[in-house]
Structures are given as structure tokens and as C-alpha cells.
Amino acid sequence: MAAPASRSGSSRPPTSASQAVPHRFRGQALGGFDAQVVKDLEFDVIRAWLVGHAQCPTAQARAAQLVPSRDPQTVRIQLETAWEFTRIRQEGHAFPSIAFEELDREIQLLGIRDSVLEEAGFMRILQASRLVNEVLGALHPKRATFPRMARMLEQPELVESDELIRPIEAVFDAKGEVRSEASPLLGKIRAEMVQVRRNHARAFQRALKECGDRGFLADIRESVVNDRRALAIAATHKRKVEGLILGQSKNGSIAFIEPASTVPLNNELELLRDDERREIRRILLDLTRNIRRFLPWIQAYQRLLTELDWLQAKSRLASELHATLPGIRNQPGFHLIEAYHPLLRRQNESLGRRTEPQTLELSRRQRMLVISGPNAGGKSISLKTVGLLQLMWQSGLLIPVQSGSEVGIFDAVLTDIGDNQSIENQLSTYSYRLKRMKEFLEVSGPGTLLLLDEFGTGSDPELGGALAEVFFEELYERGGFGVITTHYANIKTRAAELPEALNGSMRFDRESLEPRYRLDIGQPGSSFTFEVAEKNGIPAGLISRAKAKLDPRKVQLDELLSDLQREKARSAKVTDRNLKRELELEQALARLASEKKGLEGKVQTQQEIAQEQNLALVRGRKMQQFIDQYQESGDNKALFETVRKYFAVERTREQEALALAKARSAQGAAAAAKRRPKHHIERIQVGSLVRLRTGKERGEVLEIAKEVATVRFGSFRMKVELNKLSWLAH
Fold it and tell me: φ, ψ for residue 451 (rounded to 5)?
């Protein structure tokens, strides 16, 4: 096919569509995600992690500058494309490894008239062209399976062709060196160089032998000085050897002499090398002019391969995080099922510790979650998990959650996490938080996600708690979403009163006073202040005096929350244990039913075999009677007629029995169809509510692979064949 005409255009795609989002409050925000949010949620660590997985400078720069996007279409395209690339790797589809060197310099030189590309530049172009051909060959048959990646190939310059490869391969060999066959003159020059080298080698060997025979050589005999072969002559004999002195050893005991017989040959070789360089430059100039018409192709290669390197970096990060693509919501909110904090999980894996996943959901009906519980119980990690995964997701990165999760787009994520005292600005922690809260009140709205850790702390508990309650009410009225951790009872109480807010608490074992790092939704948690103090050796008298200084109702409330949390934990253990036993019982019953059916089938088969054997025995005896009645020399006409009638009767019986069996089978199937309930397994999909056909337990479908579904019953997950489930609802 004809090569395309050259046209101008950037060789690099934009770093990120989200980087065009205008700045928001206080000049630091990037589309509602300011520098403090990045720091609070450690998104900069994720970016650095991603940089480590990128190979080319373009992808590394994109990773370092990655920011979330507020455009749903941009996020959807980025996520779906990254998920397709990840699936290609995970499912073992044939696809080349994306390893190449960028073509910035080559593209720049090809745009300059009469410029000449370096030999390494041609090899980079050759490598890129071959790699693009492999990518096109791998993706074209799978366009329906990977539609997002297929759209990356919809550029007129991206054509599976060897038109650019052939002229480069005609000039360069597999080692990247210019072939002698690249031009007749180059071939002639190199042939002459070979002959001169042979003559030089023979002349040098003669000189070496002569000097050796005369005892002029030092122990090392010869050396190479300035790319010229030289005799190693003992300094006492240097005046006895004709030639050019090239140097001497450090101690002056050896002189390095080029024999006089090889000097003209070396000079001739230098002239030939100069001729070779000039001819190679002429060849490369012609080749550069030849491939300059392919400049649009080379620019397209650069765009495609840098984008694939970017996707490969995302895919490698996703593999390390055990990440997947959750469902995409059109509205703000999320439902995270068994979500992991990526950095905590990596740290715990390196230490051999288990990381507890969290399940959280925010929607328009339940948009403000207040998490309470003891210190070091996991409140902050739950909050940070939500924030970091949201930033990653809106930046086009896959996240570590279970299938069935859903995530929506927020216009802004606002955080107030940790101690942010500013010595430079002379701000205390509380002053900083008030300043931050003022900013939140200015920008928060229905598309805002607020993440507030230890909400209201830093001032007098009663006064600060009252102000925090007012802030909470004001933020609630603005219609935003939020996850808030607090110890203040008035915030917990207010969350219970507001219709679109809810409480949550971190599990805590009251007997061992150890945190369980699991979030329970529905009720506030106790701070276990006095219990933890008692465990740490604080005298009981001091604890009693402290309780006496409090309002008795507050102490009773905290004790009530503590008791409720303990009872809920016990109830959850009992429920989980009973559910597990019920599931095990149902599985055992299903196995018994299957075994019973198998035994009944075997009995039926044995009965049928016995009937067939009895019938064969009766028929055999009848045939024996016919044989006994047969007369070899007599008239057997009557016997043959009797046999024929017998065969006709038996044949009729067989046909009647077969027809009766078919009729009974049809009647049984019709009756079974009438009795059989409609299980609607064709409706079962990820997220469906289902139940086991042999029981009443309800569960949620998390994943479907072939004909097997992974279903969560309470806190248990089990794999069940689809034909053993009944669909209930979506």
C-alpha cells in the first residue's frame, strides 16, 4: 500500500484528560482534589508506586502528575480500558510485552529536511514497527472481546504492514549494523578492508617472529596502542627495530613499536575506514529520506505504544493490589464490598499479617456515616480506605474490592485528617481545622465527599463538641456525602436522628479489650475509655473517681453502648455459627439426595438387567424347543410357520412395551414440569439476591464463573452451581 503523506502533529497523547479541570478553592485544588487531600490520603504514594511500573518517560510523567477526573465519561473510558488490558494479562491472551524506546528524537529529526538519523534511531523505529504489528495482529481478532482497546487502533496510520520494516532490514542486520550489501561501494570497501587486514596480520606475524628470534621481545610480546597492533620490545633493543614508536610502559622498560612493514597497511586501513564512514552516512541519508514519508506512521506508533505502556503500568499495579473493576454509578455514592486499603495491605503482607477488609455504602438515602469506637480500632483506616480508593478510581485506576461493588463520581473529595499544625503560619491544630472547615462550608454540596477524622477535637470538649454538632448539621443540610470519625456523643446522637445519616462502630472484644478492625453499621460504638484504662493498670479507685466527676447519664450511656456492642458481637458469632451449620447441613442433605438418586438409579438398572436376562432365558428355552422339533430329513413347514408366528408376537410385544415406556416418560416429565418451581437461573447475575433450592438462606451473588456462582451468605462465601440456586431479586 502507498505510504501516507507527512503531516504535522504531536507525537504524545495528553498526559491526562483530568488535568484540564480548573482549579478550585484557595489556589491549591485540582478539580476539587487539593494538595492536602493527596497528602492526607497518601495518594502521592500510589502515584510513586505507579511510576515504578512505567517504563517510558511519557508514562512515568503521567503517573507522577496523575490527578482524579470529575468527568464520568473520561473515568469510564480509562477504567474500562485498563480493565481490558488487565484481563488480557490475567486470562493469558496472546499479547506482546510492551518494551520499547520512545521515538521523540527520531520524530524531531524526521521533521527536519536533509537530517540523518543515527543507526540506533533506525533500530528503535524498527523495534516499534514490529511491536505495533504484533499488537495489531493480537487485537484485531479480539475486537468484540476488548472494544475499548480496539478503539485505540482506529487510526488510519496504524496498519499491519512491513513497508517500513523492509527498507530498514535491507540496510541493517540483526545486530543493528549496516550490511555490506547495503550498497555495491560499501561492499567493495569492506572487501578491501578484509584484504588489508590479512596483509597486515601476515606482515605483523613476520615482524613478531623476526624480533622473537633475535631476542628483542619482552615477556608480553605484543600489545595494542591507539587501536594499532604494536611489538613489545625491551627498551635496550628499541633502536634495533625499524618502525614507529607508539609509547612505552610506565617504568620505561618496554617500548611499543609498530613495525615499519605494517605502517603503510595501517594507514591504508584508516583511509578505507574513512571511506566506509562516508558511504554509511550516504546510505543512512538515503534511508532517512526514504522513511521520512512514514513520519505519520511513526508518530502513531509513538502515541499507541506510550498509551500501552501507561496501561501496562496500571495493569501491573492492579495485579499487585488484587484489584478489579467495580460497577460504575451515574450518581455520587458507592458500595464497597470487602475493600482493602492498598498501602496497609502491602505493609501487612510484608509482615505476614492479615488485613481486614471493610464493607461500606453511601447513597442518597444514607449519605453521612459517623464511625465511633475505641482508639486504634480502625476508624481512621476505614475512612482513609474510602478516600484513597475514591481518588484511585476517579484517576482511572482499578481498586481492591470484591466484584459487585459500585462507585460513583464526586465533584470533590475534602479531607481533615491528622495533626496539621503549621509552625510557619503559627496555626494550632484547632485553628487549622477551623480554617479547613470554613473552606469546606464554602465548597461542599451534593457532589462532595467529606472525610473528617476525629471530628471536633482540638478544643474544650463541651464547647468544641457543640460547634462540631453545628458544623455537622450545616454540612448535612448542604446535601453532601461524608464519612466522619468521632468520640463525641452528641454527634452520634445527631446522626441517629437525621434521616439520611447513620452510625457505625468498629468491633471491639470487651473481654480481651482487643480491636477486631471490622466495621458494623447501624449503631454507635463505645470508646471503652475506662475499660482500656483498667486493662493498662490504672487503679480502680482513680477510675471510680473519674466516673464520679461525669454526668451519671453519660456514664450509663457509654456502658449501654459497650453492652450493646458486646451483645451484638455475641449475636453475630452465634448467627454466623448457626448459618455456617445450616449451610453445611444443606450441603450434606444435597449430597445425600444425590447419593440416594444414584443408588436408586443403580437399583433400577439392576432390575432392568435382571428382566432382560429372564426374558433372554425364556426365549432361549423356546428356541431350544424349536431346535429339538426340527427334522433334518423331514417336512419342517409347520415348524417354520410356528417360528414365524412366535417371532411376530414377540416383535409386537417389544413395540408395545417401547411405546408404553415412552408414554410413561412423557407423563412423568409433564408432571415434574408442573411440580417444578421456576428458579429463573437465567436471571441470576452479579448482585442478584438468591437462595439455595434446598434451604431458605438468602445470599448475594458476588461473582459468576462459567456455571458456578460465588455467593455470600452472611459473613460466609461459598461456590454454588447455578442449577442449585433460585433467583429472588436484583
Answer: -125, 105
Give SS3 for 446: coil
CA geometry: angle at 219 spanning 213 and 221, to 5°?
60
Q: At which residue does the C-alpha cell 464526586 appear?
A: 410
At the topology level, CATH places domain 679-730 in SH3 type barrels. (2.30.30)
pLDDT > 90: what percent of the chain? 47
User: What is the spatial distance between Cα 712 and Cα 727, in angstroms, rounded to a whole number?
Assistant: 14
Beta pairing partners, 463: none
Report DSSP state, residue 463.
H
Q: What is the pLDDT of residues 681-727, one digit of tens each?
A: 778 888 788 887 766 677 888 888 878 888 877 656 677 888 888 88
Residue 150 CB contacts under 8 Å (≥ 6 apart), including other chains:
139, 140, 142, 143
Helices (H), 630-689: 637-675
Q: Which set of grid coordinates corresponds to residue 617?
A: 432365558
Task: Walk across the sheet containing 708-713 and list its strands.
Answer: 716-721, 708-713, 698-705, 689-692, 725-729
pLDDT digits (tens, 9 = 90+) for 56-77: 999 999 999 999 999 999 999 9
Cell digits of residue 585: 447441613
> Binning pLDDT at 50, 70 and 90, where does residue 552 land?
low
* Cβ-contact 260, 240 below 8 angstroms: no
Q: Which of the following CATH numbers is that of domain 327-528: 3.40.1440.60, 2.30.130.10, 3.40.50.300, 3.80.30.20?
A: 3.40.50.300
Q: Are strands 689-692 and 725-729 parallel, antiparallel or unpaired?
A: antiparallel
Q: What is the dihedral of CA 324, 329, 331, 337, to 10 degrees?
A: -50
Task: Report d(CA 390, CA 360) in Å as an integer.
Answer: 12
Can you say whether the dihedral through the CA atoms of 321, 322, 323, 326 is positive or negative?
Answer: negative
